Amino acid sequence: MRPAFSVIFLTTLIGAGQGLFVALYSAEFGAWLSFWAMPSAQYFSLGCVLVLALLGAGLFASFFHLGRPERAWRSAAMWRNSWLSREVIVLPLFMAAVAAYGLAHHLRGAGDLTLTLGGAGVALALLLFVCTGMIYACLPFLQEWHTPLTVINYLLLGCASGFLLSTAWAAVQAPALLVTAAAWTAGVTLVALVMRGAALVRDASLRPKSTLQTAIGVKHPRIAQKAQGFMGGSFNTRDFFHGKSFAWLRLVKWGFLLLVFPLPLALLAGGAALASWPVLAAAFLLQYLGLLIERWFFFAQARHPQNLYYQAIS
Amino acid sequence: MSKQLALVIDLNVCVGCHACVTSCKEWNTSGAAGFLSDDRPYGRDPTGTFFNRVQTFEVGEFPHTQTVHFPKSCLHCEDPPCVPVCPTGASYKRAEDGIVLVDYDKCIGCKYCSWACPYGARELDEHQKVMKKCTLCVDRIYDEHLPAAERKPACVMACPTSARLFGDVHDAESAVSRAIRDAGGYALMPEWGTHPANHYLPRRKTEITLHRDELERVDNPLKIDGKLPKPDVKAPSLDDSTTW
Ligand code: SF4
Ligand code: SF4
């Protein structure tokens, strides 16, 4: 598939936003269980502004994916069967929950209300991860995507990114929480590494179910395309091929593995030890860059069976 | 059972002339639904939206090869994976005749349905920015102003070799159902469970076996047939007696 930048930005930005919100709520929940002291109201309310900024930026990016953005409201219609439609509904609901949670903290401080609102928000954040992941995982013939690992990785990578940001945020607003946040971030990131690795191992052993033989229904083992019906390009040749070499793909794979996991983890350790928010923020940005590359790879590596019909121009 | 309109395409007969492609484009770019994009048709890098493409494949190894011309359009799957993914409901399958259609007024151009079609049958129109695909000429086949014999998709009308049959594959006695049954009709990529309504008829070996007695009757029971004329080698032939 050809990676679409609008979707790359959408999924990574909202992933970070959802992860950050889960982290904020964990901070409140842990304090409520008296594992640690309750952070300041600002930690939550301004944190929610940060979450909303990420979600808003993602939403903004998503419009560039649509041919007819002015009709975007129509996409909420088919929530009974379309995961895309469900995502379109859950995202604004989640944004509303985040806004309400932030506002409640700002006006009344932590309490039963914030605990309930935040719980609803976390449920919506998790649901949103499921919707986003299922958009890809529900397509059976994109074999690279058709696995629970797709949903799990959207969840874990989003959380890793959001928790890392929450660590930087804690360094600014709630220094007492810094070490705990850093430990949680490291844990989530390591689990994400294991699951993303599992997906890569699975991809390496996939054999395409469709072949040129099933595509045109001729059983002969040797079939060569001689013409695809046109000499110039078409939607089919533009939107389903990434046009990069195998070597480039390998490079990208190792690039994102490095940028998403070991490098930010090293910066995280350093930043937590020094209690320096700029170092932690740099770790977040570096990892975000890696996540953009990871998402690019996620799309590029999926082999669509329609490509069997577009192997040779003439 | 309800109706399921479909095409049956005979790969044994298709000569790859692209008449169906041009006829389809001509009909569907002139309809009420608006034009089909066609950019730089005479330029260096022509591109455009088509409902139907004819591709060519070479099967086997030289010198034992066959050329297979392969027309490809939306197969109007009985279980279309492209429909349930559509967030707006713009993509739908008609209950009355099984045609899969896109409502161009609802489509937001999110391309999700094109990801969900394993056959690459959908193309986003570069100018209208909505998803387009074969409609089985839904604006032709029910048109009472046309003579009954012309209420067929434009591609079927255009095919000079009658490689394209059109009809109801749920009616066991229709010409298309009989062709699928008798000539080994098959579906593309059966592995995904989409149950395409369109079927393809395979290439067949065409052979004729001649026996000696079919050229010259050996038994000649009434002694009426004469022997084939065998002139003397020295007799003048036609070449000797003409002067062109
Ligand atoms: S061929 Fe593709 S576009 Fe047509 S009905 Fe089947 S899945 Fe949908
Ligand atoms: S491109 Fe149009 S028809 Fe296809 S899924 Fe999106 S809204 Fe539906």
Describe the structure.
The complex is a heterodimer of chains A (314) and B (244). Chain A is an all-alpha fold. Helix content of chain A is 69%, strand content 2%. In chain A, α1 (5-32) runs antiparallel to α4, α4 (112-137) packs antiparallel against α5 and α5 packs antiparallel against α6. The radius of gyration of chain A is 22 Å and the shape is elongated. The model of chain A has no long low-confidence stretch (mean pLDDT 96). Chain B has 244 residues and is α+β, with helices and mostly antiparallel strands. In chain B, 15% of the residues lie in helices and 20% in strands. Chain B is built from six helices and eleven strands. Chain B has helices at residues 19-29, 112-115, 154-158, 175-182, 212-215, 238-241; strands at 5-10, 38-39, 47-48, 52-61, 64-73, 91-93, 100-102, 123-124, 131-132, 164-168, 199-201. Chain B has a three-stranded mixed beta sheet, with helices on one face. A two-stranded antiparallel ribbon of chain B has the order 2-3. In chain B, strands 4-5 form a two-stranded antiparallel ribbon. In chain B, β4 (52-61) and β5 form a beta hairpin. Classes of the chains: A mainly alpha (314), B alpha+beta (244). At the A-B interface, α3, α7, β1 and α8 of A face β3, β4, β5, α2 and β8 of B. β1 of chain A pairs antiparallel with β4 of chain B. The structure holds iron/sulfur cluster (2 copies). One iron/sulfur cluster binds at residues 74-77, 80-82, 100, 117, 119, 121-122, 133, 194 of chain B.
